[in-house]
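Thread amino acids onto this structure.
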């Protein structure tokens, strides 16, 4: 499952960050999962809950931000909400549009003691 390997990578990163910051108990972790990653937030949440059972992460809450897909126009610099199939700039009508958001898969912040 796609979400399970993401969860594993996520928890590994969290573990390393906790070590660096000398955090013993994780309270919450906030992540950003863009629309374009095709990750189901609910499936990710389920994998997270299942993965943290019996680990130092147990009881931590997972907060998921879902940034929408955005396009950025290479011609006029406009950034706008778009879909995968709509790649025309609403500002200047040019079609040299690249993905400017929605492909994020990051840890935004974490809290612990
Ligand atoms: Zn444009």
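Threaded sequence (113 positions):
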């Amino acid at each position: 499952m796609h979400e399970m390997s993401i969860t594993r990578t996520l928890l590994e990163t969290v573990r390393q960050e906790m070590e660096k910051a000398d955090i013993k108990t994780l309270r919450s972790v906030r992540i950003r999962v863009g629309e374009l990653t095709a990750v189901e937030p609910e499936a990710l949440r389920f994998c997270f809950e299942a993965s943290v059972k019996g680990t130092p992460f147990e009881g931590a809450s997972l907060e998921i931000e879902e940034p929408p897909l955005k396009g950025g126009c290479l011609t006029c610099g406009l950034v706008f909400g778009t879909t995968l199939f709509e790649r025309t700039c609403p500002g200047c009508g040019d079609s040299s549009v690249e993905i400017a958001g929605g492909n994020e898969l990051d840890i935004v912040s974490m809290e612990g003691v």
